[in-house]
Amino acid sequence: MTRQSGRPADESGRLEKEIRTYDFLDANHVWYERIDHEAAMTMEVCEEIDKALEATICKNLFLCNRQETNFYLLMLPGHKKFKTKDISKQLGVARLSFAKDAYMEEYLDITPGSVSVLGLINDTENHVQLLMDKDLVQDEYVGCHPCINTSSLRLKMDDLLHVLLPAMHHEPIFVTVEDEESRIS
Question: Once rounded to an integer, what is the mean pLDDT over residues 66-72?
Answer without folding.
Answer: 94
